[in-house]
Task: structure prediction
Amino acid sequence: MSEVLDKPNVLQRLLPMVRGYDWPLIFIIGALAAIGLTAMYSAGFDHGTRFVDHGRNMMLALGILLVVSQIPPHRLASFALPLYGLGVALLVAVALFGVTKKGAQRWVNIGIVIQPSELLKIAMPLMLAWWFQRREGALRATDFVMAFAILAVPVGLIMKQPDLGTSLLVMASGLAVIYFAGLSWKLILPPVLIGAVGLILIAIYGHHLCEDGMDLVVLHEYQRQRICTLLDPTRDPLGKGFHIIQGMIAIGSGGFMGKGFMAGTQTHLEFIPERTTDFIFAAFSEEFGLAGNLLLIFFFLMLVWRGLVIAMRAPTLFGRLMAGAVAMIFFTYAFVNMGMVSGILPVVGVPLPFVSYGGTAMVTLGLALGILMSVARSQRQLVQDQPPRL
Result:
């Protein structure tokens, strides 16, 4: 009889699994997921099973988040080198005998067709955080040089495919880790200034760049065309400029309060291309207006802020670097997607987290959030395990 009374019930078994979770982060994730489902229902209700599949992808990401959050950060660090090595090996396989679709060689068939560059979005910051963790307290300039080399290999292979959007995301996640590891401002400012000067020169002399017959060695032709389309989308309004023009029309027509849920004419008359994937922000803006955009941007900023708070409180260097990198990954995703749809950045294939349709991207985000939650749990468990002060 005593054995029956002592046997823990289901709630008692589940309680240790959820103890230490960061509830403000969970609330923010839930709010963004609700916004994403609402936007997908409207944009994709007449687009096959997109809404149902989007919900399924979210549940899959939630499952991955819960599983990964149970793994302590020091155990996650042990996966860094194998994942990075596997990712680079698969990228080399893509370069040698990859599958080509729509002019890009980004996939490889290993029984199933996969896109290895997606793995590097997480493997890259994981590898660099592991690298700096091993050198904690004895960092030298050569360690940062090696870190840039570790970052350059996959970024170069991804750009060669070509896949500018994914290479930017991988590079941003890696640079975030290197910056948080303590890179000096003296080394950061020169490339930032060079980039700013380059943007100014493009804005001033961009018409020469877009002249017929112009061939730039440093850019692929499709990249040159994207820059030219950004500078003047009306130069090809029914072709390369169609995406940007329709996106700006949808955003502008939404006004302050929007046209209303499922009442977007640009969306449902199919003027917005890729309205359930890369350009869903335009569909959302048309129906919910500036007010809805401000709410969406607020929750993204809250997610980034919460990630940085978790990074500051992390008990180890690895945890701080990974949490900071995950926060900047979400910032980069949201900033690049909203920027390209609004016409202030070139059009690249970057989805809007929680809102855009996409199984692989959703799984990657679930993995990133699981790592962030793991770091948060490790900090809270460390506080709980400390003996009380007398």
User: Anything to note?
Assistant: The first strand starts at residue 99 and ends at 101. The mean pLDDT is 84. The radius of gyration is 23 Å.
